[in-house]
Design a protein that fits this description.
This protein is mainly α. The chain contains seven helices and no strands. α3 runs antiparallel to α7. The longest helix has 34 residues. It is elongated, with a radius of gyration of 19 Å.
Length: 183
Amino acid sequence: FGSRCLAHVAYRCSLNCGCPLFTHLYSPPSTHVLVDIWPSSMGLAQSVTLTSWGFAPFGCFFTYCDFIVAFAPKFADPKICEKLEKSRLVWTRILRIDIPSLWFYGFFGCCKLLSLLSVLGCFGPTYELVGNIGWLVLLGASVYHHIAKKESPALVAGTLALMIVRLFCSIVLRRAVRAESLA
């Protein structure tokens, strides 16, 4: 009973503040039924939240780099422009199409921005998973092109690992909540 009461109070507080970023902590993804799995689901929910906010600075940086190169390359650091141009050329060779920088980086900047907002819960719990998967695709491709350019993929691979952990915790949390709500 105690855990149910605490979960209810926390859930109500998150609803009252009106912030979708915190509502998912105490609200099961597909139902609003509170369940008595407080220790395990709370730990998983905290893991999802911590990995989301731990990823946010990296997501912002990656998004910023794409947007600055796409829309204001004269304000970007020449090293970043050169590095990102190599990435564009890798994908141009793969697709055998010359993709203009504005389109390439504008597209990826938009994908990264929307995925980041999704991961942070701005579009609700269903899209959190979609945003997480979007980042896995983007980061996986980034690891590939770092290796293709013979650069160290350490930062990107570490960020990819963080997002894999987040996805795993999110899926396990959803299954635990569903299983308990059906019991």
